[in-house]
Amino acid sequence: MVLSFSGILNVNNVDLDFEELERNSLKEKRLINTLEAELRHEKKVEMSRRCLGLLRSQTAQYEITANEVLIGRKTAEDVLPVSIDLTPEPFSHKISRQQAIIQLTENLEFHFINVGRQSVYVNGEPTPPKTSRVLYDQCFIEVSFPVAIPSPFLFVLNVWLRV
User: In this structure, is residue 2 part of a structural domain?
Assistant: First the structure.
């Protein structure tokens, strides 16, 4: 038996529009395909030797230049400033002020630690709050929200650190 839903469903006082969720899912797939195509056609991603890696989005490119960086959005009352400010990103108001930490370990592995309130997806696998996951070259990181509005990023390792 196949169940099909259409229209709007109200769960916990949140209206879920299944058609809108499906449109957002298609937009997300197109965006990921576009980022993958750009990467395949690029001969070399431009980054300096002091840059350990990049976090790329549809609108910007953020350099990772320290062994540990805090990713989030900047606000006026921040006590702990973020290393990578995602404020210019679409839907940034849904990103936690302190969303995640990307950490380079002694054995040259990058770890993604979710310190935000929502799950973050790394290559489609959920990373719940207070958990971590190893990042590899060309991993997709998606900050997802209760209304399924994705904000995908591509993690690119500096060629000097690739094994």
Answer: no
What is the token pair recorded at 116? 């935000």
| pLDDT of amino acid 6 | 46
CATH of the domain at 39: 2.60.200.20
Query: Do residues 38 and 45 lie in contact, with contact meaning Cβ atoms separated by under 8 Å?
Result: no
The beta strands (E) that lie in 2-150 are given as 8-11, 14-17, 53-56, 61-64, 68-72, 84-85, 100-104, 110-114, 120-122, 125-127, 132-135, 139-143
Q: Where are the alpha helices (DSSP H) in the chain?
A: 18-41
Q: Assess whether pLDDT exceeds 80 at residue 116.
A: yes
Domain hosting residue 146, numbered range: 8-157
- Secondary structure string (H, E, C) spanning 84-97: EECCCCCCHHHCCC
* Residue located via tokens 């038996």: 1
Q: What is the number of structural domains in the chain?
A: 1
- What is the C-alpha separation between 156 and 52, in angstroms, rounded? 9
Establish if 87 belongs to a structural domain.
Answer: yes
